[in-house]
Amino acid sequence: MPVAKSSSKKTARKPNSAGLAPDRIAAILAALDEAYPRAECALTHRSPWELLVATILSAQCTDVRVNLVTPELFRRFPTPQKMAKATLPQLETLIRTTGFFRNKAKSIQGAARKIVADFNGQVPQTLAELITIPGAARKTANVVLGVCFNKAEGIVVDTHVLRIARRLGLAKGETPQRVEQELMQIIAQRRWIDFSHQIIHHGRQICLARKPKCNRCNLEQLCTSKDKTFQS
Ligand code: SF4
Prior knowledge:
Helix content is 51%, strand content 0%. The chain is mostly helical. The chain is elongated, with a radius of gyration of 19 Å. Residues 164, 167-168, 206-207, 212-214, 217, 219-220, 223, 225, 227-228 line the site of iron/sulfur cluster.
């Protein structure tokens, strides 16, 4: 795929506080728009509650696997009120194939009870409230806020965003928290939601953890990662 045109004909703007050229960041965002114009969350859900649970289950698990498990889980326990009354063995049996199922069962049971007890049965719409829910750290909170409420309080940093932000030189941190803070400083807030979805798709399709498909990457000319497998 061709590299998206950057605004290189314009007068080069000064590096931002992170030392990154705004034109280069703009070129990366344009290339992501070109490659993934309709990138969306791949977790099947019908409500903020279902997305919250699905995102908790997606830790260390593929979205495809989660999507196989959630229909029966939500058929049996469709609301926070109903899931709050589920026993751990009942939940463990239903989510076993997503891995770490004992901890995840505790998290989704705890999340249901917290939402019933403290949020009147409704998934809250702020990051500060969401991260009080068992199993929901910043990544999960950002997913729910962005996808369900179109709110960008932060940037979703999962394993793909962590890896690719570093490969593209957009961040240097080694933790999701640090990388999220770095990205929030250099990317306009209006792009935070789409950026995460696009990078996650890129990580699944092209910029794989092992052997990235750099010869098929439309960011290749913007990337100087030592992990590159192809140089044009
Ligand atoms: S060039 Fe390779 S390493 Fe760089 S972003 Fe593209 S796929 Fe990833």
